[in-house]
Amino acid sequence: MEDVDALRRELLDAVNAAGDLETLDQVRVRALGKKGRITGLMKTLGDLDPEERKAAGQRLNALKEEVGEAIEQRRAVLEEAALDAQLEAEKVDITLPARPESPGRVHPISQTFDEVTAIFAAMGFEVAEGPDIEDDFHNFNALNIPPEHPARQMHDTFYLADPGDGGERPLLRTHTSPVQIRTMQHTTPPIRVIAPGRTFRCDSDMTHTPMFHQVEGLVVDRTTHMGHLKGCLIDFVKAYFEVPDVPTRFRPSFFPFTEPSAEMDIGCSHQGGGLTIGAGDDWMEILGCGMVHPNVLTACGIDPEVYQGFAFGLGMERIAMLKYGIPDLRTFFDADLRWLRHYGFAALDVPTLAGGLTR
Ligand code: DAH
Question: With a 6 A CB cut-off, is 178 part of the ligand 1 pocket?
Answer without folding.
Answer: no
